Amino acid sequence: MICDYSVIKKSFLLLVGQIADGICTPLIGYESDRTPGCGNYGKRKTWHLVGTLSVVLSFAFIFNQCLGCDSFTPQWASLIYFVPFIVIFQFGWAATQISHLSLIPELVTCQHAKVELTAYRYAFTVIANITVYAVAYLLFHLQAGGDDDPLSDALGPIDIPIFRVALLYMSTRLIVNLSQTYISMYLINTLGLPKKFIATIPLVMYLSGFLSSFIMKPLSKLIGKCLTYFVGLLLIMAFSYWVLLDAKMGQQVYGAAVLLGAGSATILVISLSMTAELIGDQTQSGAFVYGAMSFTDKVANGAAVMIIQALHPCHTVVCCPACVWFYHYVMVIVTGGVAFIAALALCTILIWPIKIRLRNAAVVSEDAARVN
Asked: Which of these, 81, 173, 315, 338, has the minimum number of CB atoms within 10 Å of its CB?
């Protein structure tokens, strides 16, 4: 049913989901920090369970035809049908994500242990995604039939570090999410590669990200988190320049995918560990901080997709000649362009190091922990 919608209607549904997620995340974070939880189950695990049940109950309805709809049902009616399920799903996703992330600063206090736990978390995320893409590859292969086609409640100046880390995290998520969103269109419409590349290229990206997650802890201990993040940005920018200069990329796209996968994994893990270090020992506000970070992420991603879809040169479902170069430059901008913004945010952290806000304190002491 959604496949029959216009580009604007599809992007509207995505924007609704991103806004819902963006609004839910700080609210869930705020409540998760203050609610006692269900019995002895714990407040973080309680919210994780609520989120999981919300996702399970709503997910199937989003990817199936609306109940009672047929070919004569107006699109606006089916559009309204999908909105509440999308909102419930995004609420559940936010509750699961925020409660899980906020466990990290409560489980450990050592900064390097936080990086290690975040890397483990990402590694298992990669394993789950690899399973999905492996199944997708098998389906495409079988479908082809053997075809060998190739804090305190008040905000003030003392909260500026939160905004700087939020800008860094938002830029990171824009790179990771938008590159994953448009990589398939780039492969098929711009490079003209077979459909099997839709499964193999993301698989290579996740594998390279999985392997790079194991070297993040020793690398961050050696050169610090900021420089480790900068190394990830260099990989992203290398991918962007490769795409920009090589318009007829063939099998070389696997090499570019390795750069994008390793760079995306590095900047995502390090940005999350910076957030954990910003929280410090103020774990009672951990979920709210993660929720605030995710708010900027979801709204920015939703708005970015809406803008990109509005600029799409083709007004039909089939890709027109103009969209060949459109997706080429989209991949360049959402990686290299946003990486430049992330580099500016990183510079502000290097010039004015982040100081952890102390509980019930009007000022931050000069010996407060800093992000390396």
From this structure: 315
Bridge partner residues of 355 (DSSP): 370
Per-residue 3-state assignment (H helix, E strand, C coil) for the chain: CHHHCCHHHHHHHHHHHHHHHHHHHHHHHHHHHHCCCCCCCCHHHHHHHHHHHHHHHHHHHHCCCCCCCCCCCCHHHHHHHHHHHHHHHHHHHHHHHHHHHCCHHHHCCCHHHHHHHHHHHHHHHHHHHHHHHHHHHHHHHHHHCCCCCCCCCCCCHHHHHHHHHHHHHHHHHHHHHHHHHHHHHHHHHHCCCCCCHHHHHHHHHHHHHHHHCCCHHHHHHHHCHHHHHHHHHHHHHHHHHHHHHCCCCCCCHHHHHHHHHHHHHHHHHHHHHHHHHHHCCCHHHHHHHHHHHHHHHHHHHHHHHHHHHHCCCCCCCCCCCHHHHHHHHHHHHHHHHHHHHHHHHHHHHHHCCCECCCCCCCCCCCCCCECC
pLDDT greater than 90 at residue 293 = no
CA count, 13 A, side-chain hemisphere, 257: 24
As a whole number, the mean pLDDT across the chain is 77
Residue 61 pLDDT greater than 70, yes or no: yes
**Is residue 285 pLDDT above 70, yes or no?**
no
Phi and psi at 370, nearest 5°, equal -120, 155
CA–CA distance, 362 with 196 (Å, rounded to integer) = 57
Res. 33: pLDDT tops 80:
no
Would you place residue 317 in the very low, low, confident or very high pLDDT band (cuts 50, 70, 90)? Answer: low
